[in-house]
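Task card 7
Instruction: Convert sequence to structure tokens.
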Amino acid sequence: MIGRIRLITILLLAFFTSSCGLVKRGVNPWDAPPTASIPVISPAIELPREERVIREKLDNAYEEWSGTRYIWGGSTKNGIDCSAFMQRVFEDYLGKALPRTTEEQMELGSSVRRRDIKTGDMVFFKTGTNTYHVGVMINADQFLHAGTSTGVTISNLRNVYWVNTYLTTRRVL
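Output:
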């Protein structure tokens, strides 16, 4: 019986860390030097129509989820992790079903170069030896995500931390 409990525990740990595989970090895609400050969020009106519609939906998601704290493995407004937040945002606001883990989400869509990033693209980071992070772009420089220390928030892709942990951008819409 104890062996069975130990096996179940190991399997659960393996499941929760399955999004953490070894992925080679990409080349830094930024053309301009990173800044530490977050600029004022640009209005959706500056975007092409298709992106403006996506941005408006992402704005709604931010309004509804802002203040939700980060909980690893969480998937509700009581606490949510980054990949579950992406699941909710893409399914509930953008009509696209996503798999649960960051690693599975990273396999979707097509690769996007920095200069081609659009609203709605998913951006991925390697934040530790075996950990990843994911968010969704709201414009060419900012992304919506569930941060471990901030909860649901908007961050600047040019921030030094995000520049140093950047992994890839994927287009799934």
